[in-house]
Amino acid sequence: MLRSLKKVTPLRRMYYRSLIAKGIGGQSDEGQILLRLAKETGAPKTFIEFGFHPIQFNCAALMGSFKGLLIDANSQQIADARAVLPSNIRIEERFLDLENLDFIRQAFPKVGVLSIDIDGNDYWFLEKLLEIQPSVISIEYNPSFLDRSISTVYDPSFDRAKKGGRGWYHGASLVAMSKLCAAYGYGLAAVSEGGVNAFFTKTGKLDPKTAWRPSELRAKWSGTTPQQQWETVKDMPFVEI
């Protein structure tokens, strides 16, 4: 019944507004982690997030006191977000590649939180945007890559659903993300309870190999272990980091 109602735009947005009124967040404890790290680092009250859903995104817990920029290529999600999210959140419909990131660099004089979750070129976008020096970085890692230091190959038209490997070929490992961030003075500060999302600050000191967590949702939906997931994608093209 609810699924059918959500197909009707006014009803879907009414439902979204009711959830927002109750408080929304990420898939796990991402909101609490970001609030804590933003406070610890004295982060400017600004955030940029790309790859989001109107009622489920990592920086949702920051909406009340931060200015934000949300970016996605899904036109329905963009329209819904513009209809239900507060006016302090700027919402942009863009399909991003490495050549059209300037508007992100210019969004705010200083960035408190940069959050990336696009199920594809995550590593390569972060590499290009680390120069803006956010106080806190939130980025999705691929737990199916285990403790290897690898990323998928950059593809400007990356579509996870079309890459095969049951949708498990995307992004980069936690070790690879940690190496990239370390080159800019960041350390791993937290990993979400459900796995998948990693958080970096200038004072983070966690070891990515011991902090790594599997994806609870991936294991639940597929009935597979991380090792079995790796066996599915191991022969696909990777870049060693």
Report on this model:
The longest helix is centred in the first third of the chain and has 14 residues, at about 10-20. This protein has helices at about 1-5, 10-20, 30-40, 75-85, 100-105, 120-130, 160-165, 175-180, 210, 215-220, 225-235, and strands at about 45-50, 65-70, 90-95, 115, 135-140, 150, 185-190, 195-200, 240. The N and C termini lie far apart (about 45 Å). It is globular and about 45 Å long. The chain has one domain: Vaccinia Virus protein VP39 (Rossmann fold, 3-Layer(aba) Sandwich). It has 11 helices and 9 strands. The protein has about 240 residues and is of the alpha/beta class. Helix content is about 35%, strand content about 15%. A 7-stranded mixed sheet has the order 3-2-1-4-5-8-7, sandwiched between helices. The model has no long low-confidence stretch (mean pLDDT about 95).
Oligomer: single chain
Q: Quick one: CATH class?
A: Alpha Beta
Q: Give a short account of the largest sheet.
A: 7 strands, mixed
Percentage of residues in DSSP E strands: 15-25%
CATH superfamily: Vaccinia Virus protein VP39
The CATH architecture designation is: 3-Layer(aba) Sandwich
Give the terminus-to-terminus CA distance.
Answer: 47 Å
Helix content: 25-40%
Structural key phrases:
241 residues; Rossmann fold; two-stranded antiparallel ribbon; globular
